[in-house]
Design a protein that fits this description.
Radius of gyration: 61 Å
Distance between the termini: 187 Å
Number of strands: 17
Shape: elongated
Strand content: 25-35%
Mean pLDDT: 74
Number of helices: 7
Length: 411
């Protein structure tokens, strides 16, 4: 009975073993590097997935512990780098692996049971690719060119010289003269190559006013590593400026300064004229208007504003009185003049009373005017006729005389 049960158990184990799915390991495991940026990458065919979710586990171990593990030590543990990831790559940069250290990496695919571990030895100093200079500046200084070279940078934004490469890293500089009709390439005329450990290099003995192009490469000879070349960087050298060019620049600057000063003086003159015409006008107000518009105090010349309720109408009437026109009618010259009359008109009683011939349109105020065609004088035989135009000019030039009565000027 016991033999039968043992046989059944062996058959069951063999069936389970034949029905289990064997998971293939990852393929083409490699480390992609640049300075201190490390990424472990592998390949996995989707056909091997068989419609199941597959995950990958990446672990690492220093070479010192790996040697202990191979010597039979039992207390050596692997460190997880990317546990249970669905990607086919794992970033090792965040682990901050030492650049001069040696590490053992392994990756495994898991689909239920795990596949075999795939091991990969990694030494950053030996396997990591060195990058080109992080920055190259080309500065012309006369007929020379100064090349400023910045070291390759690590993942923590520090120089690669701080990772133990100080005595070994250097640069190769390739420069050439660029023709005017030539594209930027390495096939220029008079190309040269030089190497340096310094970050500042001066290219001397170059042609003046000539275009030169430069490319730089980082090199590390201990493991015979070299970076890619930087893109071409071109600059034109300088030289002694010709005398005619200096004279031209001087004349141009002189003309520009002259025009600027002229424009400034013209602007100042126009501002002065405008302010003078505004604040100090050339046409002054008459004296009889200034006494009403300005303050009467001798120490003030500020205009006095008129309020709406002020006596502006009365002031205007006093300044500009209305003219009073007089109508003068003289009688016919048939009557004889009385030699004893002394300028006054005496009425004759023959045939009734007659008017003196003088009429006023308003009271007794205002200038007196005569109609044209009348004669003026004390004697009839003078015969001189005064025109109204001359009389009007004489009256206009005199100030108006205010009297209380009307004087007859014609008899």
């Amino acid at each position: 009975m016991s033999s039968v049960s043992g046989l059944l158990l062996l058959l069951l184990l063999s069936c389970l073993h034949t029905g289990a799915v064997e998971v293939p390991p990852p393929q083409n495991v490699e480390v992609i590097t640049l300075n201190t940026h490390y990424t472990l990458s592998w390949e996995w065919s989707p056909a091997q997935n068989q419609n199941h979710s597959v995950t990958f586990t990446v672990q690492y171990l220093s070479m010192y512990k790996w040697d202990k593990l191979n010597s039979g030590a039992k207390n050596v543990d692997w460190s997880d780098a990317c546990p249970q990831t669905s990607h086919t790559h794992c970033d090792l940069t965040r682990l901050r692996l030492h650049y001069l250290g040696i590490y053992m990496l392994r990756v495994q695919a898991r689909l239920g049971p795990g596949s075999k571990w795939v091991l990969k030895e990694f030494c950053p100093d030996k396997d990591a690719v060195i990058g080109p200079p992080s920055r190259v500046d080309l500065v012309p200084v006369g007929s020379h060119l100064d090349i400023n070279i910045a070291d390759p940078m690590t993942s923590s934004n520090t120089s690669m010289r701080d990772e133990g490469l100080r005595p070994d890293i250097y640069y190769s500089i390739y420069f050439w003269e660029r023709d005017t009709d030539q594209q930027v390439c390495e096939c220029g005329v008079a190309s040269q190559m030089l190497t340096t450990h310094a970050n500042l290099v001066t290219l001397s003995d170059l042609k003046a006013w000539t275009m030169y192009c430069v490319r730089v490469q980082s090199r590390y000879d201990f493991y015979n590593k070299s970076s890619v070349w930087t893109p071409p960087l071109c600059a034109q050298t300088e030289g002694v400026t010709p005398w005619w060019q200096i004279l031209l620049y001087f004349l141009l600057a002189l003309v520009i300064c002259f025009l600027l000063v002229l424009a400034l003086l013209y602007g100042v003159f126009r501002c002065y004229k405008t302010l003078k015409a505004t604040l100090f006008p050339s046409v002054q107000l008459p004296a009889h208007l200034q006494e009403y518009l300005y303050d009467l105090s001798p120490s003030s010349d500020i205009p006095r504003l008129l309020s709406p309720d002020s006596e502006s109408v009365v002031i205007c009437d006093e300044i500009c009185p209305q003219a009073v026109l007089l109508e003068v009618h003289c009688p016919a010259p048939s009557e004889e003049l009385d030699p004893d009359s002394s300028g006054r008109h005496s009425r004759q009683d023959s045939g009734g009373s007659r008017d003196s011939g003088v009429y006023s349109t308003e009271g007794s105020s205002g200038p007196r005017l005569l109609h044209s065609g009348q004669t003026l004088g004390g004697e009839e035989d003078s015969g001189q006729e005064v025109k109204m135009h001359d009389l009007h000019l004489k009256v206009k030039g005199q100030r108006p005389i205010i009297d209380e009565g009307v004087v007859d000027m014609c008899v």
